[in-house]
Write a structure and sequence with these properties.
elongated; five-stranded parallel beta sheet; alpha/beta
C-alpha cells in the first residue's frame, strides 16, 4: 500500500493532491496542516510527520514559499523520508531531462531536452523550460513563465507568470 502525506492543505496542497490522485499510484493521500487540523483528510499538525513515517509513505511539503518548502524538504530528507516526483499526465518532460526528488510538474508544462530540475522545484501550469537549462533547488516557475535555453536559475528563485527569461540571461 503506497501512501502520500502532503504537508500543507492550502491551495498548493490541493493542487499536489489533484496531481497525485490523477497519477493513480497512491492507495491513500492525506494532509498534515497546522491551521486545518479539524478538516476532513487532515490527520494532524505538520510537526507530527514522523509519527506517519514508514516504508510505504512518501511526503511532500506543499508550501508555495520557496524557502519554507526547501527547509521542510531538507528536514524530511534528513529523517530519511522519501519525496516523490509528481508529473501531471498532461505535462511534457523530455526523456533526456532530469528531475530530482520533490519536483512537481503541472499540466501543460514543458521540460525540454537536457534540462535539470533540482530538488523541490515547482514547474507550474503552462510553464516552459527550453533546452539545456538548470533550475537550482527550490525554484518556482509560475503559470506561463518561460525560461529560454541555456540558463541556470539560482536556488529559490521565482520566475513570475508572463516572465520570459532570455537565452543565457542567467549564465551556465
Amino acid at each position: 500500500m503506497k501512501k502520500l502525506l502532503i504537508l500543507g492543505a492550502g491551495g498548493y496542497g490541493k493542487t499536489v493532491f489533484d496531481v497525485a490522485q490523477q497519477l493513480g499510484c497512491y492507495d491513500k493521500i492525506a494532509f498534515l496542516d497546522d491551521a486545518r487540523v479539524n478538516t476532513p483528510g487532515v490527520l494532524g499538525n505538520c510537526e507530527e510527520y514522523l509519527s506517519f513515517a514508514d516504508d510505504t509513505t512518501e511526503m511532500y511539503p506543499a508550501f508555495g514559499n520557496n524557502e519554507v518548502r526547501m527547509a521542510w524538504i531538507n528536514r524530511l530528507m534528513e529523517d530519511g523520508i522519501r519525496l516523490p516526483v509528481l508529473v501531471h499526465p498532461e505535462a511534457y518532460v523530455s526523456p533526456t531531462a532530469t528531475l530530482f526528488s520533490g519536483v512537481t510538474v503541472l499540466p501543460k508544462a514543458v521540460v525540454n531536452t537536457g534540462v535539470m530540475v533540482k530538488t523541490g522545484c515547482i514547474v507550474n501550469i503552462g510553464a516552459l523550460i527550453d533546452h539545456d537549462c538548470i533550475l537550482e533547488e527550490g525554484c518556482h516557475l509560475a503559470p506561463g513563465a518561460i525560461v529560454k535555453a541555456e540558463n541556470r536559475i539560482p536556488g529559490c528563485t521565482k520566475i513570475d507568470s508572463g516572465t520570459v527569461v532570455q537565452n543565457g540571461q542567467y549564465p551556465l
